[in-house]
Design brief:
The protein has 200 residues and is an alpha/beta fold. It has 7 helices and 7 strands, in the order ααβαβαβαβαβαββ. The protein is globular. The termini are far apart.
Length: 200
């Protein structure tokens, strides 16, 4: 098992986390950006796919989904939970996404749900370069950033929407949408930013 710094704490709590993730729907989590979701079938890369909730919802909508998840226990449970859907699962991780980039593919939509704040500042710089390189012209990136107390055993950094937009702009990605709201699970002190960046 590869050690991925940003995913520390997830392997040990995988069973609990899968239950937590699956307790809310894709539509509830991403309600702010649903109007920006492509309606025609497109190529989706779900980075840090967790329980596979979002990958499954997008596959059901007819999209061609590649789901990246570096935590073995999460990825294995997700594959069982959503076994009936045509999702390609990959054991890879930010900031490098070595396996995905090696294939030379591009994607119309990249999802980074509750992922970006796990990356240290230098990792975010490298990760944004790779995210931009994987995005097709006209494509979009959806990101959600968690703000608030860090759970025990987790590795998280304070990341602002502004920093994220500025970093994206350095790689040709344009700010398209930004909203802020409360935690979907009602956790004290936790808030979220929902962002969309686009490649012209």
């Amino acid at each position: 098992m590869r050690a991925v710094a940003g995913s520390s704490g997830y392997e040990e709590e995988a069973v609990v986390l899968v239950g937590q993730y699956e307790s809310i729907t894709f539509e509830q989590v991403h309600r702010d950006v649903l109007h920006l979701l492509p309606t025609d079938p497109c190529r989706v890369l779900d980075i840090g796919a967790g329980s596979g909730r979002d990958a499954a919802a997008l596959a059901r909508r007819g999209h061609h989904v590649t789901a990246v998840e570096p935590t073995d226990a999460l990825r294995q449970q997700a594959q069982i939970l959503h076994a009936g859907l045509p999702i390609e699962w990959v054991d890879d991780a930010l900031p490098e996404l070595t396996l995905v980039r090696r294939e030379g593919r591009s994607f119309d939509l990249l999802l980074l749900t509750a992922v970006w704040m796990h990356l240290a500042p230098d990792e975010r710089i490298r990760a944004m370069e790779h995210v931009a390189s994987l995005l097709a012209s006209g494509g979009r990136v959806f990101l959600s950033l968690r703000h608030g107390p860090v759970p025990n055993g987790r590795r998280m950094f304070n990341v602002s929407a502004q920093e994220t937009f500025e970093l994206g702009l350095k790689h040709g990605l344009i700010e398209t949408f930004h909203s802020e709201r409360e935690d979907m699970l009602g956790r004290d002190g936790v808030r979220w930013s929902f962002l969309c960046l686009s490649k012209p």
